[in-house]
Amino acid sequence: MTNPPFGGEEEKGILTNFPEDKQTSETALLFLQLIMRSSAAPSRLTRRRCGMVVPDGVLFGDGVCARIKENS
After folding, report:
1. Biggest CA pair distance of the chain
2. How far is CA 42 from CA 14, 58, 72, in A?
3. Residues 6+ apart with CB under 8 A from 21
4. Residue 21: helix, strand or coil by DSSP?
5. Mean pLDDT, range 52-72, rounded to an integer
6. Nearest 5°: phi and psi at 2?
């Protein structure tokens, strides 16, 4: 269970750690990508779950939000 940093913006140098089509300065979206990457199961036999509080824009947004959700 986790709660991302809301309303912040990250500096440009941090964005290079993320795929080019999913780069954003919004910290909640960057945090979501980090959690998705770190909780990825090493095999199909392993199941992992995570509970996370996110702003409405993450659930219903388009653009970068939609591209991030495609990978979940």
Report:
1. 38
2. 25, 26, 15
3. 64, 67
4. helix
5. 81
6. -150, 165
